[in-house]
């Protein structure tokens, strides 16, 4: 294994976060002018790291009092070249990128030693908990590139908290909120060239938590893996902001009371595939599911929450254990309230749905998707002249402007990665040991003693 990498701070304020720190004494010895001799010269990064780098640099040759030799490369951030993609025709599908993130949980229940590694297949035991008993969760969030070149994440802490809630339900340990967010940051940075240009799409981020340990009896797995991969994506529905057409499913159900429908388990989505495939074969965009008890109250679409609009009232099914607590759903409710709408979270009947002024769906992938028609028991009801209602259009515009950094974030929901930074890389024998992000005005001799260690498999 070779070591290499870089980490920049995603921040709400000019502070940096660190995953791991080496012993302070070692750092003091390394960076102290009294114990190190510096020979300043301009030179490229070591070849093995240079192949993955997009930074102009110069370096110091250093030695410390234990006789070890180090090279310190001080690198100014440069604009990365974009991946060779037709950004104007970007769909919603898996596209292999450069790196993924992996972190394992040992027997003590603590996650540690996370690392970036080349994107690729993973190895699992045939007896792993995820393969045999479906013990796994997933999340979804996006990174956007702003017009100023900076990168933006939208409410990643909410994804971390939802994963913790789901992990507790299916007896898994989970990364802390800080571990989750820092892992997302590192993965986004490592795959920066795959982030679509502004207005062309987003970088979809897929964190996974799975029982990777071998287990034969029905029980929690003995080991867990937290994994993050990313893919550049366009619109989830080919229609984009154009209206989608839904059909109400009356026989099959996505979730039942007391089950796991309210957490983002991997198995939840297998339950929608049959009805969804049949609906798409008939020309519908997706399926709207009803509650399994009364069969007359709305639950959700296959991978989206649903809202109805009647006048100034917006109603959506309440979260009561069978409906996923969508982060986009939560954000839309807050945005709607801030704009003067009345919002109710409660049971919503089919009759109310069919009598609504407009209907829309929300989700990480779709953001806001207006519904053009609903078909129930063979009867089709259309909404508006073109299916794109005033309210859904207004909420979509507001939320996407926040997500893409086009509007002032008064909600404090976004994490902005300021790309105007530099990095310090400390090498020994051509292998990167430590990396530290700092302001462009920082001097090497005055670096804080907080240096992050990142392992990357090339």
From TrEMBL:
Q: Which domain of life is it from?
A: Eukaryota
Q: Does the keyword Transferase apply?
A: yes
Q: Which UniProt keywords apply?
A: Amino-acid biosynthesis, Aminotransferase, Branched-chain amino acid biosynthesis, Pyridoxal phosphate, Transferase
**Keyword Cell membrane on entry:** no
EC number from the UniProt entry: 2.6.1.42
Q: Where is the signal peptide?
A: none
Which InterPro entries does this one have?
Aminotrans_IV, Aminotrans_IV_CS, Aminotransferase-like, B_amino_transII, BCAT-like_C, BCAT-like_N, BCAT_family
Family statement drawn from the similarity comment of this UniProt entry? Belongs to the class-IV pyridoxal-phosphate-dependent aminotransferase family.
Query: Would you tell me the protein name for this molecule?
Result: Branched-chain-amino-acid aminotransferase
Organism (species)? Solanum tuberosum (Potato)
């Amino acid at each position: 294994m070779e070591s290499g990498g870089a980490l920049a701070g995603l921040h709400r304020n000019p502070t940096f976060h660190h995953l791991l720190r080496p012993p302070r004494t070692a750092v003091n010895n390394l960076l102290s002018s009294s114990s190190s001799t510096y020979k300043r010269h301009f030179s490229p990064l070591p070849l093995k790291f240079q192949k993955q780098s997009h930074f102009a640099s110069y370096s110091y040759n250093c030695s410390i009092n234990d006789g070890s030799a180090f090279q310190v490369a001080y690198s100014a951030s440069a604009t990365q070249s974009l991946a060779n993609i037709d950004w104007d025709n970007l769909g919603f599908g898996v596209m292999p990128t450069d790196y993924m993130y992996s972190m394992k949980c040992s027997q003590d229940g603590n996650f540690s030693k996370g690392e970036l590694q080349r994107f690729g297949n993973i190895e699992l035991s045939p007896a792993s908990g995820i393969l045999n008993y479906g013990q796994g969760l997933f999340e979804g969030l996006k990174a956007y590139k702003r017009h100023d070149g900076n990168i933006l994440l939208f409410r990643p802490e909410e994804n971390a908290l939802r994963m913790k809630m789901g992990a507790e339900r299916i007896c898994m340990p989970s990364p802390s909120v800080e571990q989750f967010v820092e892992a997302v940051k590192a993965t986004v940075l490592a795959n920066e060239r795959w982030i679509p240009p502004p207005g062309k799409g987003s970088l979809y981020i897929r964190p996974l938590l799975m029982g990777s340990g071998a287990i034969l009896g029905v029980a929690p797995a003995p080991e867990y893996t937290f994994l993050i991969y990313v893919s550049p994506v366009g619109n989830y529905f080919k229609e984009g902001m154009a209206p989608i057409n839904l059909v109400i499913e009356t026989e099959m159900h996505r979730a039942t009371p007391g089950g796991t429908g309210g957490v983002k388990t991997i198995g939840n989505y297998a339950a929608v595939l049959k009805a969804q495939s049949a609906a798409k074969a008939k020309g519908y965009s997706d399926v709207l599911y009803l509650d399994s008890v009364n069969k007359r109250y709305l639950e959700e679409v296959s991978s989206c929450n649903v809202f109805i609009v009647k006048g100034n009232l917006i109603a959506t099914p309440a979260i009561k254990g069978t409906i996923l607590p969508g982060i986009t759903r939560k954000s839309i409710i807050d945005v709607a309230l801030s704009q003067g709408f009345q919002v109710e979270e409660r049971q919503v009947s089919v009759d109310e749905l069919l009598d609504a002024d407009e209907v829309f769906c929300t989700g990480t992938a779709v953001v806001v998707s207006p519904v053009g028609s609903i078909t129930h028991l063979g009867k089709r009801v259309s909404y508006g002249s073109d299916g794109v209602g005033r309210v859904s259009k207004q909420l979509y515009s507001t939320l996407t402007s926040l997500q893409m950094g086009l509007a002032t974030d008064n909600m404090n929901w976004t994490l902005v990665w300021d790309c105007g930074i530099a990095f310090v890389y400390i090498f020994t024998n051509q292998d990167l040991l430590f990396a530290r992000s700092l302001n462009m005005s920082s001097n090497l001799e005055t670096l804080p003693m907080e240096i992050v260690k990142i392992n990357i498999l090339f």
